[in-house]
Write a structure and sequence with these properties.
Elements: H1 11-39, H2 46-70, H3 84-90, H4 94-104, H5 113-120, H6 124-130, H7 138-141, E1 165-166, H8 172-175, H9 183-195, H10 213-222, E2 223-224, E3 234-235, H11 241-244, H12 252-264, H13 285-289, E4 292-293
Parallel strand pairs: 1-2, 3-4
Keywords: Membrane, Transmembrane, Transmembrane helix
Protein name: Helix-hairpin-helix motif-containing protein
Pfam family, one: HHH_3
């Protein structure tokens, strides 16, 4: 009897081994070639992706429109009359606003974008944003050709009341007889007088661009106001916010502060106390006083 070798398999065993090897090979092929390609395959969502992208773009567009609507609107304005609140909304710093107000308190005027930057020292980016909205008076933006100058004599002898002319009826030629007033200034005085329907007080000459206190005094020495414009004065201690804002140089913020200060003081005892109100245009107190009475 021969001993059977350990490496001899029956036909059934050989078939089983062949089947096992075949399965292993098939698994190797599946894991190395088939499975990776399945994992890298993504469903076809092109049509749905296009719809989603379109919806997202529409939402972004609506958001942009809403953001633009909520931005504060800037309208043309004269930079000489920027208040604390106005300057803050424009993006100016406290120091920049203070420089502007200090310059204006000297009765000086800003007549160009370059001068505004020199006075306030605002950044170039902010200047580029707000300067397109600057609105200067016509005689600044469209100056008239200088007229030919001529020499004339002025009398230093004080005039009596009867010798003085009525400022509200004086002609440009009569105004030019005053030292310091030429054709340009006389035209501005007449134009302003027509605009306000006659002067009420010599204080209003401060509103005529370019007139210095010395020239205004020269006008007072040669003219009187015989027919002052009638002004209905407003009761300071009773006026509402809506009434106060009708006065030149008083906006809603200042009117609100006036009423608050009036409440704290239990009524103003003097119109000059308005200079203590937060944000009040102190340099315009004399003009504002023309429209107020104390009661």
């Amino acid at each position: 009897m021969f001993n059977q070798s350990h490496f001899m398999f029956s036909k059934k065993q050989r078939s089983g081994i062949f089947l096992l090897v075949s399965i292993i090979l098939m698994l190797l092929v599946f894991f190395h070639f088939v499975l990776p390609s399945l994992l890298n395959t993504t469903p076809d969502f092109d049509s749905k992706d296009a719809e989603v992208d379109a919806f997202i773009k529409q939402v972004d567009s609506l958001k942009a429109i809403e953001i633009e609507k909520r931005k504060p609107k800037i309208y043309p304005f004269n930079p000489n009359f920027i208040t604390d609140h106005k300057g803050y909304t424009l993006g100016m710093t406290t120091q920049e606003i203070d420089r502007l107000l200090a310059f204006r308190n000297q009765d000086k005027w800003i007549n160009s974008v370059g001068q505004f930057k020199a006075v306030t020292m605002v950044s170039d980016s902010l200047l580029a944003k707000i300067s397109p909205y600057f609105k200067f008076p016509d005689w600044v933006t469209n100056p008239k050709p200088k007229q030919k100058t001529f020499s004339k004599t002025f009398s230093n002898t004080p005039k009596t009341i009867s010798q003085k002319l009525d400022l509200n009826s004086a002609t440009a030629a009569q105004l030019q007889k005053v030292y310091g007033i030429g054709p340009s200034y006389s035209e501005r005085i007449v134009k302003f007088r027509t605009k306000v329907n006659g002067f009420h007080s010599f204080v209003e000459l401060q509103e005529v661009y370019g007139l210095t206190p010395e020239v205004i005094q020269n006008v007072k020495d040669n003219f009187v106001i015989k027919s002052p414009r009638v002004i209905t004065k407003m009761a300071l201690n009773k006026a509402t916010k809506e009434q106060l804002v009708t006065i030149k140089y008083i906006d809603y913020e200042v009117a609100h502060n006036i009423i608050e200060e009036r409440t704290l003081r239990d009524g103003f005892k003097s119109i000059d106390e308005l200079t203590k109100v937060n944000g009040f245009p102190v340099n315009k107190i004399q003009i504002i006083k023309l429209s107020l009475r104390l009661d």
